[in-house]
Design brief:
Layout lengths: L1 H10 L1 H24 L7 H17 L2 H21 L3 H17 L4 H14 L6 H18 L7 H11 L5 H18 L5 H15 L5 H16 L7 H14 L5 H18 L4 H4 L16 H12 L5 H21 L5 H11 L11 H15 L5 H15 L6 H18 L4 H14 L5 H17 L4 H20 L6 H21 L11 H14 L5 H21 L2 H4 L3 H6 L2 H4 L3 H5 L5 H22 L9 H25 L5 H16 L11 H8 L1 H4 L10 H4 L16 H8 L25 H19 L2 H17 L6 H22 L6 H16 L5 H17 L2 H17 L3 H17 L2 H5 L2 H12 L4 H18 L7 H12 L10 H15 L8 H13 L5 H17 L6 H8 L8 H17 L1 H5 L4 H10 L4 H15 L4 H12 L4 H10 L9 H7 L13 H9 L6 H17 L9 H9 L13 H12 L7 H15 L17 H11 L6 H8 L1
Helix pairs in contact: 1-2, 2-3, 2-4, 3-5, 4-5, 4-7, 5-7, 6-7, 7-9, 8-9, 8-10, 9-10, 9-11, 10-11, 11-13, 12-13, 13-16, 15-16, 16-17, 16-18, 17-18, 17-19, 18-20, 19-20, 19-21, 20-22, 22-24, 23-24, 24-26, 25-26, 26-31, 31-33, 32-33, 33-38, 34-38, 38-40, 39-41, 40-42, 41-42, 42-44, ...
InterPro entries: ARM-like, ARM-type_fold, Laa1/Sip1/HEATR5-like_HEAT, SWEETIE
Family: Belongs to the HEATR5 family.
Pfam families: Laa1_Sip1_HTR5
Length: about 1300
């Protein structure tokens, strides 16, 4: 056969090479390699290059050309796979096999699948790599042609069972991947016996395997099994699977836990939709094996969530939350549950919070994640309105626990911001729900109610005035009642007092940011109210404490939010309000205190207000005239607070430790808000006495949580906080929660996603260590050495103590904070003794074998900062010392730490002093990269990346060697290189940045870089997909000659619909760069609708997407205003009535514009929704749905429309009708597009907007008319000499203006009309 193939090649050589030379040459070389494989093992690198060329050429060739050489290609690929090949080569060969059959003669799928099955069934013991290659290829064929080869599914499951007996874990992994592709590809159309055997393999072999990669593959198989309908499963099997998934959520490996979470969600959805089994059986009238399980949610989601306890409780709750989200997504997108049912299930999911009367912050965070991602983000705009009302009515229920109320109010705020408007139905229930919650006995509920009303005010500014007036009136009335102790229900009245103060503070904070502004008397009125509350005495001490606390709350909001010119004249009066608390003798102040806890709580609130005052009037960003004068009394107050803390610490009042910790935290925060620590140098000794506890007495303090904030985010891949699919999910995973933690601040612009993220004790340790770092930076050398000796002494003596690891973290935080403060404050140069002392401490930490990745990263980064703080001589000497230590290191963990330290030093210090050490550093680290230890490989690759990025152009001479190193690692025998893929991709992107313009598009170097990126991103993990998109971005920024603009756009468009914000951010920012770099080429790409579609479906990244659309508008509108008018017209005139009608009739709406199956069941792990549909599907789907746009998208479209008359530029033909006619009529530029030719459409559209039903859009329509009159006001009418062009549109213009200036018009519309 080979001879006949060779004769055919010779006979057609001339013709073939001229038509498709790359395809033929690649196939011929592969055939030659396969023929010589028994005598000479194939070169992996050569095979990788050839297969990459082959895959690319197949995409470009027509079917007829491929058919000529199809059999030759198939045979060569089959031989290569069955002789054994490395993993990347196996994947490429499998992909090439599938694409050859798919694009060529599809009839060969049957013979090729049979051949692969026959090879794997062979009774002889087959080499592991050969088994893995054949299994991977057969899996690819099932993925592409599964429904055509379902007859072989029984044989395939038997093959998988055989392969699971291999001792090599990668063979077992590939066997399960084959099973997953076979199950998904067959879609339930195979023989029932095959599915039962597949289920047995998954449950009895895959899920109990000791290898994590095998368990991961088995969990994904189980999810696929549920997605195709769980063929053959009875209720016992289904419940067994669900129970095992719940147990799997406690696995030690995060990726395995995530896979079990998805499997649990898919199986839960199946248990509630057993009829799906009938649908998967090609219409046969079998009865479903299972019955609908009504209590599945309760048994496998809610009950385990409520009962979760022990060390794995948080892991289990997070896993159950992710399962619940996936469950909601599946039942909506796959099983087409109506939105009303989705909302009812959301209320059921809130039962997770009914376990106890107290609020558990971690449980609350998980439920908030479920409600937001699983429900709110999936609902269409009309459904969100209904959900808003439903949640409002939920608050009316008397059996609603505080946790449920907090979750409900938080989601109400999110829905209001998402909608951009307040539905009339929600206004009807507002008083009995949100407003009533301001008087709830729980302070958590009152704060969330205030934040909800703040969100309502942002959306509907017209209600702010009434709410503020009502708040002040109610506050005065309640204060009057409690001051004279008239109320029969004092606790209820005090709750109302606090709630009204909180909502008034929230409304005061938001007022200056609203378009309508704020009343001129508001600052003075609120200041007078707060001053009276702080100065008015009361016979009832409990009431007096509550009134003072509310007064400080109001003052904080006022000072934080109002323009400084409004309060500058009253700055000294404001400052006097703290005199009673912190001036004078602290013993005399505390002599009459009866309730220490309440008094300390008020002092903490007052200190928070003082911190706000410092940031507003004294910090460098403040513009206050009296900033320097005001600092001295502020320092006196802070000194008094320190004395108070010292006094209370010695007296130790009963039951006041937590309150005292909170006051101490607030005082330290106030000191840190002062930009220059030398301003309070006289207090350094006393402050250090307060905040050195975690260093001097480590046994009594919690472990700091600041490393997650202080460490460089670019090193996150090293752990322990590895970024996932989006920042919201990452925040949930890292969330610890503290029942006594700080509540959300009602005047803060950045309210956290989850309330109470940390306990007071942990916040106190964090602030102590930050203050320690600040003051350490300002001490003289003698004091610095004394502080370092304390750290060193605790490290030496505490190795066997239970608190040792916590102390290592606290020491790293203190040192990092100190080094960063030294760089920030630019204090005196450190002596060599201090530098050497810090170096020895950090290196001693790195030598420990039990420290965590976060602690290792902190010590490495500390050495990097030390290199930046020190002079060039010390930095070079330290680098050489580390290189010497690296050469002698034996422990792999220690070697990886030293390698990262070297990378951090180059990143932080760099420069000429280290340039001569780059080759030796690269050589040493590159040797470590070849290790068989995957952890050492990961850390070494990252260190190499840091060195490349720091070296810049001086690294050019090392590029070739680095690329060969990358290829060698990629093609190593079965290493666990899934964790290395991201680092390999980042190295390639760094190489592209270094080479830049020298990267030739036709070179082998560029082709190999591109092939490596395609290989690492084939796993479809978020981290590797990020590097794929970043590769496009790097080419745009540094090597624009390497690829065309069109190819870049086609690569980026599918990513715009990804569910991962990080991917969408990279894609949009890259498109923004392309628009700025080559606006002419981007005009013909027609990506406007893609961007608007993304803006409509995704609430985050709004500013970036809007900026990109505006940039594109101003770049392309001068050439094609008609296109923009057509696009914007469709969006601006879109209404919600059509959507409401369709929802009423069908009960569902595909909000993603992609196939339900593609979105979650076709290729779930690729994380790019609809990527299989090609780049045009998003646009076409968007055009089909443009009548269902969200309100906020229509408003933005109207704003874009108002920019069109100015975006067209200054070309006279755009505004002169006669000139425009001459340009188009006399053949000057027949393709030219002039705005004046569309003036009638533009005016008609602006009139419809200004007089339409949406109040939020009407001012934009009036402003557009104003712009039209400015631009075309003097344009003559060529058809009626002596008249202007706008006269024929006089009726529309006058009517619009008359409507705008009517006394019944809304304020914003009236302002636009009068202008």
């Amino acid at each position: 056969m080979a001879k006949r193939g060779g004769d055919a090649a010779l006979a057609t050589e001339g013709m073939a090479l001229s038509r498709f030379g790359v395809l033929v040459s690649s196939a011929t070389e592969l055939e030659s390699i396969a023929a010589s494989a028994p005598y000479q093992p194939p070169d992996p690198l050569l095979c990788f290059d050839l297969l990459s060329q082959l895959v690319s050429s197949i995409e470009e060739e027509p079917k007829e050309s491929i058919q000529l050489w199809q059999r030759k290609c198939e045979d060569a690929l089959f031989s290569l796979l069955t002789f054994g090949a490395r993993r990347p080569v196996r994947r490429l060969a499998s992909v090439a096999m599938g694409r050859v059959i798919e694009k060529g003669d599809g009839i060969s799928i049957y013979s090729r699948a049979s051949t692969l099955q026959g090879f794997l069934v062979d009774g002889k013991k087959i080499e592991p790599t050969s088994c893995a290659g054949a299994a991977q290829c057969l899996g690819e064929l099932y993925r592409l042609f599964g429904r055509r080869i379902t007859a072989g599914l029984v044989e395939t499951t038997n093959i998988v069972s055989k392969l699971m007996k291999y001792s090599e874990d990668y063979v077992r992994q590939d066997a399960l991947l084959l099973l997953e592709n076979a199950l998904e590809g067959s879609g339930g159309g195979g023989a029932p016996a095959s599915y039962m055997e597949a289920y047995r393999i998954i449950m009895r072999l895959g899920l109990v395997d000791k290898s994590l990669i095998v368990r991961l593959a088995a969990a994904r198989c189980l999810k696929t099994f549920g997605s195709i309908g769980g063929i053959g499963l009875g209720m016992p099997e289904l419940e067994s699977s669900l129970g095992y998934c719940v147990k799997g959520l406690e696995d030690q490996v995060p990726s395995v836990r995530d896979a079990f979470a998805d499997a649990l969600g898919a199986l839960l959805a199946l248990s509630m939709n057993p009829d799906a089994q009938v649908k998967m059986k090609k219409g046969k009238n079998q009865t479903p094996v299972t019955k609908k399980s009504e209590d599945s949610l309760q048994k496998y989601l809610i009950a385990p969530f409520v009962k979760a306890s022990g060390v794995n409780a948080k892991k289990l709750r997070i896993g159950l939350a992710l399962s619940c989200v996936f469950f909601f997504q599946v039942i909506h997108l796959k099983y087409h549950y109506p939105h009303s049912e989705l909302q009812n299930l959301a209320l059921k999911a809130m039962e997770m919070l009914q376990g106890s009367g107290s609020i558990d912050p971690h449980s609350l965070a998980c439920v908030l994640y479920i409600l937001r991602v699983g429900v709110a983000d999936q609902l269409t705009e009309p459904a969100q309105r209904d959900f808003l009302v439903l949640l409002g009515r939920k608050l009316e229920s008397s059996d609603c626990s505080p946790s449920v109320r907090v979750a409900t109010l938080r989601i109400l705020s999110y829905l209001l911001k998402s909608l951009g408007e307040v539905p009339a139905e929600f206004k009807d229930v507002l008083d009995n729900t949100v407003v009533a919650a301001l008087s709830h006995f729980s302070v958590h509920v009152r704060i969330e109610a205030a934040l909800t009303l703040r969100a309502l005010a942002e959306v509907d500014p017209t209600c702010v005035g009434g709410l503020i007036s009502l708040g002040i009136t109610t506050l005065n009335a309640v204060r009057e009642i409690v001051s004279f102790d008239k109320g029969n229900n004092l606790s209820g009245e005090l709750a109302t007092l606090h709630g009204q103060a909180a909502v008034l503070a929230a409304l005061v904070a938001i007022s200056p940011k609203l378009l309508l502004g704020y009343p001129a008397r508001l600052p003075k009125s609120v200041f007078e109210v707060s001053k009276e509350m702080l100065n008015t005495a009361s016979r009832n001490l409990v009431a007096a404490t509550a009134v003072r606390e509310a007064g400080w709350l109001l003052l904080s909001s006022l000072v934080s939010s109002m323009p400084k010119e409004e309060l500058e004249d009253q700055a000294f009066d404001i400052l006097l309000l703290w005199a009673g608390s912190f001036a004078g003798n602290p013993e005399q102040h505390l002599r009459g205190v009866q309730d220490w806890t309440s008094e300390l709580r008020v002092l903490s609130v007052s200190m928070e207000a003082l911190t706000v005052f410092i940031k507003s009037f004294i910090s460098p960003k403040a513009t206050s005239t009296y900033g320097g004068i005001l600092l001295q009394p502020v320092l006196a107050y802070l000194s008094g607070a320190l004395s108070l803390i010292s006094l209370l610490s010695s007296k130790r009042p009963p039951n006041a430790k937590s309150a005292l910790d909170l006051l101490t935290t607030r005082v330290l925060m106030a000191y840190q808000s002062i930009s220059d620590p030398l301003a309070y140098k006289s207090e350094h000794t006393q402050i250090m006495r307060v905040c050195s506890g975690p260093i001097s007495e480590p046994s009594g303090w919690a472990e700091s949580s600041l490393l997650r904030i202080l460490l460089d985010k670019r090193d996150a891949c090293l752990g322990p906080w590895i970024p996932g699919r989006d920042s919201f999910e990452d925040e949930l995973r890292a969330f610890e929660g503290g029942s006594d933690g700080l509540l959300p601040c009602v005047w803060d612009d950045d309210v956290g996603n989850f309330p109470q993220p940390e306990s007071v004790s942990k916040i106190l340790v964090n602030q102590m260590l930050l203050c320690f770092g600040n003051i350490f930076a300002c001490q003289d050398n003698h004091e610095k050495i004394a502080l370092l000796k304390r750290i060193d002494q605790s490290l030496r003596t505490g190795k066997k103590q239970s608190w040792y690891l916590s102390f290592v973290t606290n020491a790293c935080v203190g040192l990092l904070s100190g080094l960063k403060s030294i760089l920030s404050f630019r204090t005196q140069e450190l002596s060599a003794e201090i530098l050497s002392f810090i170096q020895s401490i950090l290196q001693a930490i790195l030598r420990e074998t039990v420290i965590s990745p976060a602690q290792k990263r902190a010590a490495c980064e500390g050495l990097g900062l030390l290199g930046r703080v020190a002079n060039d001589v010390f930095t070079a000497r330290m680098t050489r010392s580390l290189l010497g230590e690296l050469a002698l290191a034996v422990d792999s963990n220690h070697s990886g730490s030293i390698a990262l330290s070297l990378g951090c030093i180059h990143r932080s210090a760099g420069g000429i002093a280290l340039s001569i050490l780059v080759p030796s550093t690269v050589s040493s680290i590159s040797a470590l990269c070849k290790s068989t230890d995957s952890t050492l490989q990961l850390w070494s690759l990252h260190a190499l990346l840091l060195s490349i990025e720091a070296a810049g152009l001086s690294y050019v001479s090392q590029v070739q060697a680095t690329l060969l190193l990358v290829m060698e690692i990629l093609l190593l025998d079965e290493n666990g290189y899934l964790d290395l893929r991201q680092e390999i991709g980042r190295l390639i992107n760094a190489i592209v940045a270094v080479l830049g313009p020298e990267l030739s598009p036709g070179s082998t170097f560029f082709s190999r870089c591109k092939s490596v990126i395609e290989e690492v991103s084939s796993s479809k993990e978020t981290a590797t997909l990020l590097e794929s998109v970043r590769f496009t971005q790097q080419l745009v920024l540094f090597a624009p000659q390497a690829a065309t603009v069109h190819s870049h756009v086609q690569n980026l468009i599918p990513t715009l619909s990804s569910r991962q914000p990080s991917l969408r951010y990279l894609a949009v920012s890259t498109l923004h760069h392309l628009i700025e770099r080559d606006p002419a080429a981007m005009i013909n790409e027609n990506i406007e609708e893609n961007l608007f579609s993304m803006l409509d479906e995704k609430l985050i990244l709004t500013n970036l997407v809007r900026s990109t659309i505006n940039r594109l508008l101003y770049s392309s509108c001068p050439q094609c205003p008609s296109r923009w008018l057509a696009i914007l017209r469709n969006m601006v005139l879109a209404t919600s009535s059509a959507r409401n009608d369709s929802l009423a009739s069908s009960g569902t709406d595909n909000i993603n514009g992609v196939s339900d199956t593609d979105a979650y069941y076709g290729d779930e792990d690729d994380m790019i929704s609809g990527s299989k549909q090609g780049p045009t599907s998003i646009s076409s789907n968007f055009l089909k749905r443009n009548k269902h746009l969200r309100y906020r998208t229509r408003i933005f479209a109207a704003e874009c429309l108002s920019c069109v008359p100015t975006a067209v530029g200054t070309e006279p033909a755009h505004f002169d009708l006669s000139l425009a006619r001459n340009q188009t009529g006399k053949g000057h530029n027949t393709s030219a597009d002039w705005l004046v030719l569309k003036l009638q459409e533009l005016i008609s559209l602006s009139y419809q907007i200004s007089t339409g039903q949406f109040e939020g859009m009407q001012p934009t329509g009036v402003r557009l008319l104003s712009v039209i009159m400015d631009q075309f006001g003097n344009a003559p009418d060529p058809d009626f000499p002596g008249h202007i062009l706008l006269e024929q549109y006089q009726a529309q213009l006058v009517s619009a203006v008359r409507s705008a200036i009517s006394t019944a018009s809304a304020p914003l519309l009236l302002d636009a009309g009068l202008s």
